[in-house]
Specification:
Blueprint: E1 11-12, E2 15-16, H1 31-38, H2 46-56, H3 63-75, E3 77-80, H4 88-99, E4 113-117, H5 121-127, E5 134-139, H6 149-161, E6 166-170, H7 173-177, H8 181-195, E7 199-203, H9 212-224, E8 229-231, H10 243-260, E9 265-267, H11 275-288, E10 301-303, H12 306-319
Amino acid sequence: MTHVLDPGALSREGRPLSPPLEPFPDVTRSDAAFRAFLHGLPGVDQVGAEARAKVLGTRSIKTTAKAWAIDTAISMVDLTTLEGADTAGKVRSLAAKARRPDPDDLTCPSVAAVCVYGDLAGVAKEALAGTDIKVAAVATAFPSGRASRAVKLADVRDAVANGADEIDMVIDRGAFLAGRYLDVFDEIVAVRETCGNAHLKVILETGELVTLDNVRRASWLAMLAGGDFVKTSTGKISPAATLPVCLVMLEAVRDFRAATGRQVGVKPAGGIRTTKDAVKHLVLINETVGAEWLSPDWFRFGASGLLNDLLLQRQKLRTGHYSGPDQVSVD
């Protein structure tokens, strides 16, 4: 007999389980079973999601609340460089900025992580020694995900061996869109196991998923498979991180915790460049999932240029006037 997956049974006494479907020894893990569950999730009202995101995006915060928001956003940044021309020197420079974003103000918080390709994870690890800043490495044939599973897992093993504390993997969007949910699930589980103690962020590449319903389904599939974070995008596809997409993902992690007792983080990445963008996301978090997610343990910004704007706005609050762009480093 084939059983439909029941997320409510995915935790026992409030503890996460491994492997993720341990309570279902008699479950037939099949595309049909996953399809029945994922397509049985409540549909997303796209018009409603866009309208709510727009309303929340108009909230304005001032003075001390704005200062708190800027510092919180800085502490949530995964400072990122993912270019073919990346060098060890560029990663060391990025790590120095991550440690002390504003050298003239020691009260400025450091960022959450530095995100690089896996072969440079060791450089970042050495440069960040003695800090709490994490090293995140992209893997699994980032950004396309087009490689054999053996190659993807070797990519993960290499990044972890180089010192990565976090792995940002990409799902096989082709398999997902073709309805091969079991393949996607099994691959995430395999990556999760290969990560060892490293946290796993699962990149959905929402710009290729077409609909918000697919964003919800992919979020649930990633969480069912053991992902520690769900992440919007690689930053290489447009559209990337949008407020409606982030809203749907936040609702998914909220509902998943209610069903299983396990909390999962969210990471929007790509296109978030200004302090206003960051504050909109913080408002979205507070209004959708609550203050428990207002922490770098549970929310990250994948960004390269965002940090500079946050620093300029922070300097404006501190000094009363805007500094020029030459007051922050280009990295």
